[in-house]
Every structure is written in C-alpha cells, then in structure tokens.
C-alpha cells in the first residue's frame, strides 16, 4: 500500500464544475489543492469529447453565468479569479419551444420581445405574465445586488446584511417558495401554467411546483440580463481553463485517479484511498460526487463506511430522489440541412401529460450555429437527448441493450426530423449514450443529473449545504444548495471554498466589489 503525505490543504474528489470552482477559489486564496478525477478529461457533464474532427458537449450546450456584470455571472468570475477567461459567443435566443396545440415560441434575449410574444398567445393573461416574470426579476435583483457566497458563515452573512439589508430580507422571503406557487398566484390559464412547467423543466428537470423560486428567478432573468453565451471551443473549455488556472497557481489535478474510500479517523476525514491502493492525506476532503455516491445511500456502495453515515444524509435521501438520466445522441450532419438563421436550442413536447415521463421531452442543440469550428468543414453538430430512467436499461442482454439503443436513436431522429427534415439521410457520424453510459463515464448515481424532490418541499430550505456531520468532510455540486445547473453548482463551489477558507483563515476580510 502506497502512502502519500504530500502537504495539502484540501483534496477535491471529482472535477465537475462544482469541484473545479471550489478548487480554483481555494487556489486563488493561496491554498494548495489536489483534484482527483477518475476519468481522462475534466468537467464531468460540463465537459467535451472529440470524435473524427467533431467536438461534442457531454451535457447541455445552453450556458448561463458568462455575463460581464453582476453577481450571477459566476463562471466569468471563477475564471477571472484564476487569471483565465473563456472567449464566448452570444446567443440571441435562449430556446425555441415546439409544444402541443401548435404552440411555438422562442425566448429572445430581449425581455420585452419575449413578454410581447407570450402575451399575444395568452392576451387574457397579459397582466399575470408580467407579474410572474416580474417576481422572477425581483429575486434576480436581490441576488445581483449583493456579494452572496456562503450562507453557512454567520459573520460573513452579517457583513452582507450590513451592505445590502433590503436585498437580504428580500432573498430570505423567497427561500421557502416554489415557482409554481408564484405562477398560480397570478395566472389561471392551464396551458400557460404548463408552459411555465416546461420553462422550469428544461433546466431543473422538475415542473414549476417543485422548482425553487430562487433558481427560477436567476434563470428567467439572467437569460435577458447576462444572456446565453456559448464558450468558443465547446463547453469543455470552461473546465479546461479552470484546470489551467488551478495549475498556474501551484495546485494540481490528477486523472485516472479513482477514489474508492474516504479515510476516517475518530469520525474525522483525514484522507482518501484510490483504487490502486494509494492513500493520500489532507486535513480537508471535498466530495464532488453525488451524495448518494458519497454516503452510499439507496443501497449504493459509498465512499464513507456505512456505519459512519450521518442520519441527516438518510433524511435527505427520503426527501429527494435522483432525477431521470438521459438517452443522448451526438450527430455530425451535412451543413446544408440547417439554415443559418435557425435557432440553436429547441425543445419538443408532444403531450403535456407526458412531460415527466420517459421520452416525454426532447432537447435539441446545434452548437455549430454559434461556433462552426466544433465540426469539420461542411458539417453541423446536432445534440439531442430525452429523459430516461436507469431502470429501463437494467437486466438486459447485450443484444437487447444494443437493440434498445437503436430504437431510442430512431425515436430521437424522428423527433428531430419534425424541425429538421431529411436528417436520417444526412448523418455523417453518430454517438449514442444511455443512463448506463452516464453512470460509467460521469460517475453519476443511476446516471442521474441531480436530485429532485420526492414531494413538494419548501423551496430551497430542505437542501443541504456544503458542510456535513463528518468533521473536515464537505460536499459540493448539485446535491447541495442551490441544486442543479452549471451556474448553481458554480455557486455551490464558491460557497464551499468560502466555508473552507474560513476554517483555514485565508478568506479576504473585505466583501467582493
């Protein structure tokens, strides 16, 4: 057994965006950090992979957090803090929806244009539309006007309150509230409420009644304020730049470093053990794995010995369940199939009653409309995915598994053909991923992209924070406040680094500008 006693301030397990932001923030404060990633590239579901001249985004291509102003441009700030920057390409439209009853609408960068189009469709709800999205803007303005990093540090919160008391009080008001409750306060039309459900579902994988108002306020307003800005070179560039910044400040990342155990002594985290038997020690351990994978919840083997798992984690797993995974296809297609003025991101829903079911929603992105360099000359990339449960893919023979993959592929191609005809005859390259693929390569429990409530909960209040009941062990990522989404896990990384920084006494006393 090899033992590594390198003098580290923190070990981060996993190089998802939450883990990398934690590492980058600690490195920027002068800490020595080691990131351990079991795969060969960083980023997790926020990474990219290359095939035959194509650069494919692993997860979604629709990115928040790259605005130039405010406090919700977390990715811009995280990169700047480690002396890095991503060149970005603005997207004039967040999404184009293709919905039942011939309802199609695009969400423009210009807020008033979007409100006008939605009001034209639902003229009787014009006032309610303004009040709902206006409430979202109030939440955003609270977030945007104060330097909120961690809400676990009382002394820091006190300083924030002194700087922006009204914003703090305003934000506290929204913490226990879900977006669906606010929508129903102002809106009566059932189809419009379904639309707000898909507005939430497209990034939270939950309808509005289960989506926290804090998250909705950030997304529904930031898309018009900071906007949707795609990183040139693909989403994976974000992780690559964060890694470069981390290494530039003297910290390290190791690949093919599979952590199998968090070492405890006197119920305190003191290090990690790798699959090759190597042990690495540090006074602080941060898990960017899901809480199911960290603590072995849902009868899953975890990184913590089962007898030391805190009761609070089991309580959390009673309140939350894994969201569905996805079947995703990455296609290289002929460029002349798609007109230059076609929108980049699309969602197709054929039946409102199927919204939360297997294959109920199809997401489509064509990132080469923004960045042609992602594909060979004369080609486009189409990335499409649909929710799918891991249960659909278990106990299959190899032949059954391959046949099911092909059937899902044909299903997705048929859906894409509704907005891009003749695609089936113009495919140059294809990749198909299932929930088992996501579980294997991303280390995600059941291939899930994060937790969703088992039942309606009080906004964000039931979500756990970064600290755990095990001393010196922290968690980061979408299993922590404020939940799913690239900007949300970046916030989680900021908060985690701040909490650890307080412990190490390396935080700056002055609040961020």
Task: Please describe what this structure looks like.
The chain is α/β, with parallel strands linked by helices. The chain has 15 helices and 22 strands. The protein has helices at about 15-30, 75-80, 110-120, 125-145, 155-165, 165-175, 180-185, 190-205, 215-225, 235-250, 290-295, 310-320, 400-415, 435-440, 485-505; strands at about 5, 10-15, 35, 50, 55, 90, 95-100, 105-110, 230, 250-255, 260-265, 270-275, 280, 285, 320, 325-335, 345-350, 360-365, 380-390, 425-435, 450-455, 475. A seven-stranded mixed sheet has the order 8-7-17-18-19-16-20. Helix 1 packs parallel to helix 10 (about 235-250). The radius of gyration is 22 Å and the shape is globular.
Could you provide a short overview of the structure?
The chain is of the alpha/beta class and 513 residues long.
Topology overview:
Layout: E1 3-4, E2 10-13, H1 17-28, E3 33-36, E4 48-51, E5 54-57, H2 74-81, E6 88-91, E7 93-99, E8 103-108, H3 111-121, H4 126-144, H5 154-163, H6 165-174, H7 179-186, H8 190-204, H9 213-225, E9 228-231, H10 236-248, E10 252-254, E11 259-265, E12 268-274, E13 279-281, E14 285-287, H11 291-295, H12 311-319, E15 320-322, E16 325-334, E17 345-348, E18 362-365, E19 379-388, H13 398-417, E20 427-433, H14 435-442, E21 451-453, E22 473-475, H15 486-504
Parallel strand pairs: 1-13, 2-3, 2-14, 3-10, 7-17, 14-22
Antiparallel strand pairs: 4-5, 6-9, 7-8, 11-12, 12-13, 15-21, 16-19, 16-20, 17-18, 18-19
Helix pairs in contact: 1-2, 1-10, 1-15, 2-10, 4-6, 4-7, 4-9, 5-6, 7-8
């Amino acid at each position: 057994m090899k033992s590594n006693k390198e003098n580290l301030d923190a070990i981060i397990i996993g190089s998802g965006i939450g883990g990398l932001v934690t590492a980058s923030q600690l490195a920027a404060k002068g800490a020595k950090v080691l990131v351990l990633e079991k795969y060969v590239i960083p980023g997790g579901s926020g990474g990219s992979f290359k095939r035959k001249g194509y650069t494919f985004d692993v997860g979604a291509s629709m990115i928040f957090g790259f605005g130039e102003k405010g406090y919700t441009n977390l990715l811009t700030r995280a990169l700047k803090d480690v002396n890095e920057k991503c060149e970005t390409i603005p997207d004039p439209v967040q999404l184009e929806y293709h919905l039942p009853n011939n309802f199609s609408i695009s969400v423009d960068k210009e807020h008033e244009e979007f409100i006008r189009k939605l009001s034209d469709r639902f003229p009787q709800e014009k006032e309610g539309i303004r009040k709902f999205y206006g409430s979202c803007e109030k939440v955003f303005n609270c977030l945007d006007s104060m330097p909120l990093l961690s809400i676990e540090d009382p002394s820091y919160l006190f300083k924030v309150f002194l700087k922006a008391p009204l914003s703090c009080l305003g934000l506290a008001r929204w913490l226990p509230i879900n977006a669906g409750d606010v929508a129903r306060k102002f809106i009566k039309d059932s189809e419009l409420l379904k639309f707000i459900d898909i507005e939430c579902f497209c990034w939270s994988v939950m309808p509005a009644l289960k989506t926290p108002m804090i998250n909705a306020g950030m997304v529904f307003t930031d898309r018009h304020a900071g906007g949707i800005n795609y990183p040139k070179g693909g989403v994976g560039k974000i992780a690559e730049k964060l890694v470069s910044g981390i290494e530039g400040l003297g910290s390290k990342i190791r690949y093919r470093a599979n952590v199998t155990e968090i070492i405890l002594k006197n119920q305190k985290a003191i290090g990690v053990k790798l699959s090759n038997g190597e042990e690495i020690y540090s006074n602080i351990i941060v898990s960017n794995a899901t809480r199911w994978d960290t603590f072995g919840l849902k009868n899953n083997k975890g990184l913590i010995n089962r007898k030391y798992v805190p009761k609070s984690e089991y309580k959390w797993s009673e309140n939350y369940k894994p969201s569905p995974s996805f079947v995703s296809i990455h296609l290289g297609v002929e460029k002349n199939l798609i007109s230059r003025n076609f929108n980049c991101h699309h969602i197709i829903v054929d039946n409102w009653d199927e919204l939360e079911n297997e294959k109920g929603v199809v997401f489509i992105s064509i990132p080469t409309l923004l960045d042609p360099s992602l594909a060979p000359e004369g080609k486009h990339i189409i990335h499409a995915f649909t929710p799918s449960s891991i249960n659909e893919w278990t106990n299959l023979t190899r032949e059954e598994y391959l046949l099911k993959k092909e059937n899902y592929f044909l299903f997705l191609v048929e859906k894409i053909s509704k907005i891009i005809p003749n695609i089936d005859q113009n495919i140059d390259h294809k990749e198909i991923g299932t929930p088992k693929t996501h579980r294997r390569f991303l280390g995600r429990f059941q291939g899930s992209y994060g937790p969703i409530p088992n039942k309606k909960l009080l906004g964000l209040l039931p979500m756990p924070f970064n600290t755990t009941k095990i001393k010196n062990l922290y968690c980061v990522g979408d299993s922590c406040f404020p939940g799913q989404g690239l900007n949300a896990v970046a916030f989680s990384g900021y908060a985690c680094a701040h909490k650890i920084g307080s412990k190490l006494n390396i935080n700056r006393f002055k609040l961020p500008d």
